[in-house]
Amino acid sequence: MRASVKAWLLRVCTFVLSLIVACFGFFSSIVIFGEIAKIVNTLGYTSGTKYGILFAVGFTLIWLVTITTDSAQAIMLTGFKKAEKFKGETNE
Predict the structure, then answer these.
(1) What is the pLDDT of residues 29-38, one digit of tens each?
(2) SS3 of 67, please?
(3) Of the chain's two ends, which shows fewer C-beta atoms within 10 Å, N or C?
(4) Greatest CA separation found in the chain?
(5) Which residues lie closer than 8 Å to 50 by C-beta, 6 or more apart?
(6) CB-based contact 3:91 (threshold 8 Å)
(7) Prediction pTM value
(8) What end-to-end distance do the CA atoms of the chain give, in Å?
């Protein structure tokens, strides 16, 4: 296989992997928030307390999604750098 094809495949694989990681983090946080909302609504707290709990959980999940997205971006950039390095080393 030529080096350019291998580098292209490495870029595609890292892009797809980072996209899967980011989407998984986003959709899992939606599911987690939905389940926590169901649990909080069954508890005997006042409405203000329920909204406070949901706000705290939502804020925490948004923070976790941003960390996951940053990790996915780091995976993608590392893969792209390795693809460029691989392409450069084999062409010399």
Answers:
(1) 999 999 999 9
(2) helix
(3) C
(4) 70
(5) 40, 41, 43
(6) yes
(7) 0.79
(8) 16
Q: Which two tokens stand for residue 89?
A: 């080393």
Name the residue with tokens 């909080």. 40
The confidence score (pLDDT) of residue 90 equals 60
Q: Quick one: how many helices (H) and strands (E) in the chain?
A: 2, 0
Residue 45 CA to residue 66 CA, distance in Å, equals 30
Residue 62: closest CA among 33, 82, 92, 20: 33
Cα–Cα distance between 4 and 70 in angstroms, integer? Answer: 27
Token pair listed for 50: 């329920």
3-class state of residue 92 by DSSP = coil
Amino acid at 10: L
pLDDT score of 11 more than 80: yes
Give every CB contact of residue 83 below 8 A, 6+ residues apart in sequence.
7, 8, 10, 11, 14
Q: Which two tokens stand for residue 24?
A: 């998984």
